[in-house]
TrEMBL record:
The protein's name: Acyl-CoA synthetase (NDP forming)
Species this chain originates from: Litoreibacter ascidiaceicola
GO molecular function: ATP binding
Keywords: Tricarboxylic acid cycle
GO biological process, one term: tricarboxylic acid cycle
């Protein structure tokens, strides 16, 4: 991994290029109070932005720790090579037109290869990259305006998009951004590489990652392991949809596990939190900066309006959050502070009887921050300072700060509308370790993310192989035989033609299936409950387009699951578990994990299914054998792992689950011969 220490906290900075962008870097460095040595490099100009210019980097008084290279694509390659030969600390490559533009310019890929060769082991950010801001050390290698301020600690934000990074620096939400780093097209140094380096800075409280694609998964696995060891939370804003190869699939699973499912499974596997949108991303980072991950999803809410209390409850309905009933101790404390005219509940509408009585407000709010509550939300929209007098709200701000200090419990003040959380108030609350949430919807998204259970990152790498090509579909008989070899229970069966040879080896009743069809039940290719040889022949005769058949003993009735594996090109083999049988797509009740997964991972996935109560004895029915189900799923996984990339997809649907068994009633395998 490249050593980024000199690049990200340089004692000397050289700007190569005298255009407007290079000049802007020098202006921004001085404006931000950079204390290191500043140099300009230009073959003709004697001075740029008041800084002496040298004709070449080899003429500089010292080898720079960092350089901003603001010249064209070809010239950048030469400049990077000269920097590397001087043993410089690293460079930001501003120019575009490399591999990210190869669709329009086929020479871009070659240019990127030459750039990487020129850089060698010297770290570079980009190309097509704006650079970075290190607000903790007063470093701005940045060719534009920004809204960062000097800090002693804060979060780090990493993104490929320069424009989004600028916008985030301009936020007025009170989020302390310690590092803002753009990675460009990540030719050499990836977001994961950068985040790994930032984990060595104890001033970084959380890391936010705006991710367009993961690239090499092993880098992310290493990042997750190190972040977990250092207890630094990671938050992702993952955009885009994976190019899941659904067009080539024939199983039900593909319709359920496409799009973004594998990306989510990868983040879950690594214990990385995820935000649904940019505002929620910033609010989640803010929460984590103040409190770190929350102990649980049990929260309290306080407001002086019944409308707000109802709004919080309604909006939280679609989140994995809980409002525990008040304890007797809480009720007693609240009654002492509020009197008999207030209905005591959580969420709490405390009316306005105690407004401006800071002591009473503190006492009542503190009662809501009970030991079992992970976070208390104080709903409070501040008036506009330009046309109103906000001094009336000082009592509420002070009560929230006093409540935090008195209880030692996490507290947040939530403005239902983002624009009604003034930046000055947000800063005041942050200074007192109170989270200032700008927007109720964003706050609930942040609380849900920060309270969600985080997996310990798996020690085993994801099974990712090149996409299987030139595949064939095995017969059901062969598919079941292959899976049975790895421990999957399957019914006794024969392959036969119209003669029904071998039928004596089976016990009636049996099921007759036409071979060579996908989704046989949809086209009359399955006849159940045949109780004699004559009924078997009749069943075969009814399937006029079939010449060979799969005949097997009927399974006992039970709960039906789907277990499928598809190959995701970006994230590896995806194992999907869901409601099975003929209602698979209709119910769309699935959970997905990546291979390899542990028995515990699989059992957790089962518990998240909406149909899980059917597996545990719904309305007095006998519970299914969860261990048998888990072992069946592990057997399917074992087969996929053993094939080492030859498998394109596997589906068992249904896996019929009973009190002491889990049997594959149907199976499909598509693989390279």
């Amino acid at each position: 991994m490249p050593d980024l220490s000199r690049l990200l906290n340089p004692k000397s900075l050289a700007v190569i290029g005298g255009g407007a962008w290079g000049e802007a870097v020098l202006h921004q460095a001085k404006k931000f109070g950079y204390q290191g040595s500043l140099y300009a490099v230009h073959p003709v100009k004697k001075e740029i932005a008041g800084i002496r210019a040298y004709p070449s980097v080899i003429d500089l008084p010292e080898v720079p720790d960092a350089a901003f290279i603001g010249i064209n694509r070809e010239a950048t390659i030469g400049a990077v090579e000269r920097m590397r030969k001087l043993d410089a600390g690293g460079a930001v490559c501003f120019a575009s037109g490399y591999a990210e533009a190869s669709g329009e310019d086929i020479s871009g890929t070659d240019a990127q290869a030459r750039l990487l060769k020129a850089a060698g082991d010297m770290p570079i950010l980009g190309p097509n990259c704006y650079g970075f801001i290190n607000a903790l050390d007063g470093v701005a290698v940045w060719p534009d305006q920004h809204g960062c301020k000097r800090l002693e600690s804060g979060v780090a934000v990493l993104t490929q998009s320069s424009n989004i990074s600028i916008n985030m620096t301009m936020q007025t939400r009170g989020l302390p951004i310690g590092y803002m780093i753009t990675a460009g097209n990540q030719a050499q140094t990836t977001q994961a590489h950068i985040a790994l380096a930032l984990l060595d800075d104890p001033r970084v409280t959380a890391i936010g990652l705006h991710i367009e694609g993961f690239g090499d998964l092993t880098h992310w696995e290493a990042l997750a392991a190190k972040a977990h060891a250092k207890s630094v939370p990671l938050v992702a804003l993952k955009v885009g949809k994976s190019t899941h190869a659904q067009a080539a699939t024939i199983s039900h699973t593909a319709s359920l596990a496409g799009g973004d499912t594998a990306a989510q499974a990868f983040l879950d596997r690594l214990g990385i939190l995820r935000s649904p949108d940019l505002p929620s991303f910033l609010e989640t980072l803010k929460l984590l900066h103040v409190t770190g991950p929350l102990a649980s999803n049990q929260i309290s809410s306080i407001s002086c309006s019944g409308g707000e209390a109802s709004l919080v409850a309604d909006m939280a309905e679609h989140h994995d959050l809980s409002f525990p009933k008040l304890t007797s101790e809480q009720k007693q404390s609240l009654f002492s502070a509020l009197g008999p005219k207030v209905a005591l509940a959580n969420p709490l509408d405390y009316h306005t009887y105690i407004w401006r009585d800071e002591d009473a407000m503190t006492a009542a709010w503190s009662a809501m921050a009970a030991p079992h509550i992970a976070l208390t939300l104080v709903v409070l929209d501040y008036p506009r300072g330009d046309i109103c007098d906000p001094s009336d709200w000082a009592c509420a701000t002070n009560a929230a700060l006093r409540m935090r200090k008195a209880t030692g419990k996490p507290v947040a003040v939530v403005a239902t509308l983002p624009e009604l959380m003034p930046e000055a108030i947000a800063t005041q609350l942050m200074d007192g370790d109170v989270i200032p949430f700008a927007g109720l919807a964003e706050a609930l998204n942040a609380v849900e993310a920060a309270s969600s259970p985080r997996n310990t990152p798996s020690a085993e790498p994801v099974l990712k192989r090149p996409l299987a090509e030139n595949t064939e579909t095995l017969s059901e008989f062969d598919a079941k035989a292959a899976l049975a070899h790895h421990g999957l229970s399957v019914p006794n069966a024969i392959q036969t033609n119209h003669s029904a040879t071998g039928l004596d080896a089976l016990t009636f009743p049996v099921v007759v299936k036409a071979e060579g069809m996908a989704h046989k039940s949809d086209v009359g290719g399955v006849i159940l409950d045949c109780n004699s040889r004559a009924e078997v022949r009749d069943a075969m005769d009814s399937m006029t387009n079939a010449t060979s058949f799969h005949v097997e003993e009927m399974c006992d009735a039970g709960a039906e699951l789907l277990v499928g594996v598809t190959q995701d090109p970006a994230h590896g083999y995806l194992l999907t578990i869901g409601a099975g049988g003929i209602l698979t797509e209709l119910l769309n009740d699935t959970q997905s994990v990546l291979i390899p997964s542990t028995p515990e991972d699989i059992k957790q996935a089962l518990t998240r299914l909406r149909m899980y109560p059917l597996l545990t004895g719904y309305r007095g029915a006998a519970p299914c054998d969860i261990d048998a189900i888990t072992n069946a799923i592990l057997a399917i996984q074992s087969y996929v792992i053993a094939q080492d990339g030859a498998v394109a997809e596997v589906e068992v649907n249904p896996l019929i689950c009973g009190p002491d068994s889990a049997v594959a009633a149907d199976a499909l395998i598509r693989r390279t011969p």
